[in-house]
Amino acid sequence: MRANSYVEVAPGVFREDGGLYYEDFVPGEVVEHRPGRTITMSDNVWSSLLCLNQHPLHIDAVYAEKTEFGRLLVSSLVTFGIVNGMTVGTISAKGTANLGWDKVRLTAPVFVGDTLYAQTRIVSKRESAKRPGEGIVTVHSSGQNQDGVTVIEFERTILVPRQEADR
CATH second-level architecture of 18-166? Predict the structure, then answer.
């Protein structure tokens, strides 16, 4: 995988330049996204309420204590948003558009205090038939907690510019 992290904007002056061009994606390669992200109570409550997910399992500690989990469960939208967000700096920072998410699976619970890490495997790529100078890339991302347990996985398809078309 080839990625330029900086672009020289003047002699001796560099600007961060995240993300990959279409040519940089190599099917089969894996990117580990760091740093990890520890989930806070604010993340869970604010995001749950922002998304209008008022299920008491996410925002009512007394209710949650009486469930099989014995404590507040982090909303799946919080988990999805954070893990997907962790991938943006590399996978879609140069992207023109997200084309869709598929096969979203929530495979283990997430709790306040868990630290999530993400990784992305490049699944496939092809040139766009309708948009010259761009390609379509499909990736499989997953999030693991601090114990290495996969808590979420999904596929995402992105429209990405070719390097020479972006100049």
Answer: Roll (3.10)
